[in-house]
Amino acid sequence: MIEACELTKQFIRTLKKGKKEEFYAVDHISFTAVPGEILGILGPNGAGKTTLLRMLGSLMEPTAGQVVVTDRDGVQLTKAEEMKRHIGYLSENTKLYGRFTVREMLSVFGELYDFEKEQINQQIDKINELLQMETFIDNRIEKLSTGQKQRTSIARCLIHNPEIYIFDEPTLGLDIISSKAIIDFMKQEKAQGKCVLYSTHYMEEAEFLCDRIIMIDKGKIIASGTPSELKENTATGNLRDTFFAYMDGSTGNEL
User: Alpha-carbon distance 118 to 122, whole Å?
Assistant: First the structure.
């Protein structure tokens, strides 16, 4: 389980004539994501999605509030390194090592997690099948297509078999076959009791995939609930119209 408790991130920006202004990229956000759930984070560009996910993934220190991560036994993890071992984080600008083959890169990351060689090979075989990488796993990363590189980025997140996945725009710009492989992966991991948080701009994808959705704007949660609840609350027939209804402020309080 992963929980955001009044999570806040404040920055300072420079305005005209050198005047400085404080602003909240994430403004006292709280929610809980549980095992066996896919939680979607939706919002316009600049809403604070990436900043929120980076704090949840222990890649950015919050200005205030905290992230609570518990293991399968309900024990709270208190050290950043322990938390990172339970989280697989995919950013929208993940960097890969172009001269390595996919298999070589995964082996290196397995060693960084102190796995034995046999464990690493077993995990690579599992990932290879799960993400349908047979045709390119032994190719250099610099030679891969965009979709293949994205699957490789996700494979890197899988090597330590985390309990929680945090994905920032995992299907952005991908062809339909690569997108399907990633969507199928998220559904399979959910079925295994894993917790998946991901941000997306694709409303149809979120409506189809997510158990719950959180919509944020200007660093604040403006709506939360299941896709059905959000549509019912706005009297809309699809999540795209629901999103615009909340953005326009033409609905009631959040669920």
Answer: 6
